[in-house]
Structures are given as structure tokens and as C-alpha cells.
Give the backbone structure.
Amino acid sequence: DAGITQSPRHKVTETGTPVTLRCHQTENHRYMYWYRQDPGHGLRLIHYSYGVKDTDKGEVSDGYSVSRSKTEDFLLTLESATSSQTSVYFCATGASRDYEQYFGPGTRLTVT
Amino acid sequence: KQEVTQIPAALSVPEGENLVLNCSFTDSAIYNLQWFRQDPGKGLTSLLLIQSSQREQTSGRLNASLDKSSGRSTLYIAASQPGDSATYLCAVLNAGNMLTFGGGTRLMVKP
């Protein structure tokens, strides 16, 4: 694995509050990704980054923003959490677009 | 829009059997295909990556093939073991830097 850590690993929050999830990598990979995994929908891409300060939207980006100020850190922010954002969130990294993606352990987020 | 389908959704086999997991995709314009393993409550572990120009990749007891023109990939697991029990996911990379995942095959290998 690519030395990926995610924090927090579990979080319960209330509807309407902002939430930030952090992904940290030690492999100096250029690409970083945020996915969510839901029963019946599988894994879906939220946002990704192809370098410091370079980000783009994925399939399910509404209600989420991201930031990458350093190569090793990629933050996912839920601006105003809703119950539909209850999910397991995975961070992934890749040395380049065409190479393997390596996944972190996940963050289980519950919005009540 | 790319769609990825995995069949079967679940599979239960006795230890020692050779088995094949199937993955199909609708858009053949892919850059690569990746097979992952996911244990309950855990993240995804990369098993094999096949570039679009390749036909197969092997790692230990695992062999993955790719037929891009027909939109199919298979993951072959030789001499299955109880430790192979997990969910296996395939994912394809299209233009747009987006991995599209299949729904997975949940494998149970019984001792």
C-alpha cells in the first residue's frame, strides 16, 4: 500500500454542520482521489487532484469541496452535511493517471 | 456513460477449487482495468492492473485477462483458499481520470 492514512476514521455529525476529512500520503504520488461507497451504488468518484492546487470534479461532486495545499494532503469538506452524505469515504492515490490507485482505510461518516 | 457489471454477485466454493470472476464494461475506450480485493470494513487492496494494450497480468495464484474489444475481463483464482474470501471489485479507467467500478463479487471459500 501507498502509506495512506485517513482521519478521522469514524465521525458522527449533525445535519447542517461542516465536516472536513483528511487524507495523508507518504509516497509523493501526484494524483489523489476521494470516493464514496454506498450499498447499491458501489464506489463513486467525488473529486480528484492532479497536483498541488489542481483539482477537478468527479461523478458526485455536489455538496463537496476539496483542497490540496501540499503534495501529501488532500482535504474533503462537506460544506453543510446532509443525511444523504452518510457514507464510507475512501481516499486513493496514484503516481500517474494510468497507474494503479492505492486506497486508504476509509472514514465512516454518519450524518444524523 | 461507462457501466461496469460483475457476475456473479456472490459465489461460494469449497477450498481448492479454481474459479473465474467476470467483469464486463460497455465502453471499450479504456486506459486500463484494475482488480481490487475488499475485506469487510476495510479499504481496497489492489490486486492487478492491466493496461489497455495488454492482454493479461499474473500475480501468484491470480491471473487477469482483458479483451477490450468485447468489453470483458476475467479474474482467475487458482487453488482457492479460505483466506481468499472477500469482495472482488473491477474498475476501468476512462478519459476524465475517473475509475468506474463494478458492483463486486462476494466470494466465500469454505474449508
In short: Chain A has a mean pLDDT of 94. Chain A touches chain B at residues 1, 31, 33, 42-45, 48, 50, 56, 58-59, 90, 92, 97-106 (CB under 8 Å). The first strand of chain A starts at residue 4 and ends at 7.
